[in-house]
Amino acid sequence: MVTMERKTHYDSIMDRSKRIMWQDDCYMDLQSTPCSASSQAAAEDTIVREHKDVLLRRYEQYRDRDSVSCPKLNISSRTLLMVDGLSDLQQKEHDLMQVGVTRGGKRNHLRQLGLSKLFEPLTRVSLPPRFSLTVGVAGIGKTTWVRHFVRQWCQGALCTDVHLVLPFTFCELNSLEKISAEKLVKMSFPHLTDPSLILNSSCRTLLILDGLDEFRSTLNFSDAAPCNDSKKEVSIDDLITNIIRGNLLPDISVWVTSRPGVASLVPGGLVDRVTEIPGFSPKDIHIFLNHHFSEKDFASKIWAHLESHKILMVMCYIPCVCWIVADTLLYIMQSGTQESLPRTCTELYAHFCSMKAEAGEPRGREPVKIEQLHGNNRKLLGNLGRLAFYGLLKHKYTFSEQDLRAYGIDLLLTQSSFGAGILVREESAIHTTYHFTHLSLQEFLAATFYHVSSKRAIFDLFSESTMSWPKIGFQNHFRSAFQHSQQAEDGHLDVFVRFLTGLLCPLALRPLAGLLAKDDGSQKVWAAGFLQGLLVSGGAVVSLRAVNLAYCLQELQHTELLRTVEEDLRLGNLAGKLTRPHCVVLGYLLHVSPECSEQTNLTGSLNYTTVKCLLPQLLYCSHLRLENNHFKDDVMELLGSLLSAKDCHIKKISLAENSISNKGAKSLSRALLVNRTLTSLNLRNNNIGSKGAKFLAEALKMNQALISVNFQNNSIEEEGAQALAEVLQCNRKLVSLNIRKNTIGAGGAKRIADALKTNRTLTKLILCSNQLGDKGTVALAEALTLNHTLLFLQLQSNSISNRGMTALTKALRLNHGLLSLNLRENSIGVEGAKNMAHALQENQSLQDLDLTANLLHDEGVQAIASAIKYNQGLTSLHLQWNFIKSTATKALAQSLLSNTTMQLLDLQENAIGNEGVIFLAEALKTNTSLRTLCLQGVSAGTSGAIAMAEALMTNQTLQTLDLRGNTVGMEGAKALANSLKSNRSLKSLNLQENSLGMDGAIFIATALKGNHQLTYINLQGNGIGESGAKVISDAIRASAPVCVVDI
């Protein structure tokens, strides 16, 4: 059926493509006569211009409401996210739960689309979408986007190939029962005297249907009677169904907006394009606050408050709620009271209602009239709460005037400051409707109604009629509310029960003192016990309904359990403590805790049972660290199902230090075949073996998301390396591969090298400790002559000698891509160093070279020093443990006089002595490029320290100086202290184990009074003693508060 509809639509477009453009976007059929076509085009042009004028006048009234004070946040500068359908979370959960779970983050999306591109084909050969669906949570700005689009189109700013735009809202369609497509157009746009323009596809038309979630009728795509007669009257739901199906008006484009849950009712096969409206990012919220408030002090205070209360920050992801939060917090700060800023959503909305009520209080009025106004507001709040509650139960979010009267709401009072601040009136050509400022406000008012009514009600409040079983007492009604909430699969009562619980906290009720009856707060303790009892009960898996209980505890401000689990999470002390209540709270913390904002570290905390329990909540973490948990293959089955899920948000996962074998790797590989979010996989120190490597390699051939893989120490051997080499030949996404310590040998290295000859995406390759030898190194060198995209190559501890080094250095003369080469702990010797020196004279692209522990001796280093005089590419050179003495150090110092690119020089553990340090100090008086100098354990004494101190008085570019493990003594410390008084560049100074004594440490501490650049200093192991260490530490912190002191 869907295929036939697509074919009909395609044939229609092909027929339309046979026409030609004529006179300002009007079509003329090739068979028409020039005269009749010209007059027809002129008539159509007149109608279109009149239509644009009418729409512009109609939508201009909303401009102020829709605009944002900051140009950077206006719709014109924002984009929609084109997504691949709706996630399970979007289809099944409450809007605010969706926002909370994902921390307001953007979904993985195919591309970004501006409004001007929304109805255009994606490629030159593709067709434009007939049916486009745009989703977004309540308050995200769907209607604002539609209004903005209509205004822009009317002004000719976008979609100029669309001749007519017909915008409708489902709110106004609710007032209709039976109607034809032709009559609907005539009724809504009476100025369109000739509907045949639309009905006969004379020109390209866009039909906008805004707010599907507010449509009261049910769209039945399986049973709706087909209708292709635009003049035939059918029920409004059948009319909409047939338009979406393409039976009616098949040649027009249709754009529907909706909240995600209801949007899922439209069959996916009918939808050509799905886009999602993104909310504010933290950066956007910051920009909004700075532009919304003229006084920067207010903006910074509100931002600081949001930063420390993440629940409120996440709410601000929704632009509409961001307005509510910002204005309410500003109102409290400007009120002049000592009221603390709200810490929960319940407190916030209580202050919001108080603010709206106070806005209507006239200044200087008699107390009697003010009390009368309070009485009116109390009555209005009660009736609005009842409307809100029973509307919520019916999933009803827009109301007619008749609805308001039915609940005793005086329409005049809705125009008061209090009423108008809570209830928004919308007028259209067909109907007038009302809705609450935001869904969350409706839920809050519903909770206030239930809170007050449950104290005196004798029947179940969830039954609007009195025909129900008796239910007496607040606690029974409270239990009933949670029973209904826990049973609601779509979670539509989640936020309602949060507010209901929050209203038991005296702090939340205080702002509503003039609007609600007094409450003694006696139920708070009982409610806390009730909620904790619910935490204990429940199934083996922590669902979002269970997590909502923790949200309720937060609103109640009963946070002892929440704080305990968060502290254990921060300290890594969760092992053995994860009972079901702890797992539920942990699930909540995964959503809101700052400890989980960048990464979720559950190292050494979980086992099979707790992973199974937390599985639905781990789904929404972006960076999971599950290291050292003794995971076996059964856990990998669970994690495989996690990574395979459609809703998976995980981008990085570390499973290092577990007990995963090839069976576990097989489970992972199946998941990687379908996963599209994971970019980094760390399996360091497991035991997947060559068989496991093969499983994962097969998945990597297909996977187009992973860019970093770490298989370090997994015994994959040559066979596993061969499988990964095959991946490198076809995978075009993998950027980093770590197979350190896998005994792949020379054979494995040759396989990898052959793949590198054609691979153009891998930029980082780690092959340390793999017994490559000279044979494997020669193969890699050959690959480097052809590959210029690899940037980082690590070959540490591979028994590379002169032969391998000769091949590598020849390759470096031809290679212009490699930036970093790690050859630590090999045996390249003097000859190898000389070959490297020759290569450095020609290669100007290599930036980082590590030759630590390579038996270079003075002769080899002197050769490298000679090359550095001319090399202008190298920025970092590591030469520790190379038996270097003062002669080679002198050569290095001389090279620094002419070299202008070297930023790091590491000479640790070389016996260069005072003489060598003096040579380097002299060079520093002239050199302006070096930033880091590492001289740990170089046998430097007082004279060397004094020379370095003199250099520091002149040098203003060195930032890090490491003199650990020398003997600079008190006199050396005194000289260094004097230099610190004038030096303004040094940020880190390490004088650990240098025999400074108490006096030397005092010299350093005193010097910092005049030095404000130093951010780190290490004085450990200098015979200062505990009491002396405290004195010195306190003195340094007093002189330089930002300086970190290790003593």
TrEMBL record:
It is found in: Cytoplasm. The keyword Ribonucleoprotein does not apply. Coiled coil: none annotated. One of its GO terms (cellular component) is cytoplasm. Keywords: ATP-binding, Cytoplasm, Leucine-rich repeat, Nucleotide-binding, Repeat. Residues 130-261 form the NACHT domain. GO terms for molecular function: ATP binding. The keyword DNA-binding does not apply. InterPro entries: Leu-rich_rpt, LRR_dom_sf, NACHT_NTPase, NLR, NLRP_HD2, NOD1/2_WH, P-loop_NTPase. It comes from the Eukaryota. This is NLR family CARD domain-containing protein 3 isoform X2. The lineage of its organism: Eukaryota, Metazoa, Chordata, Craniata, Vertebrata.
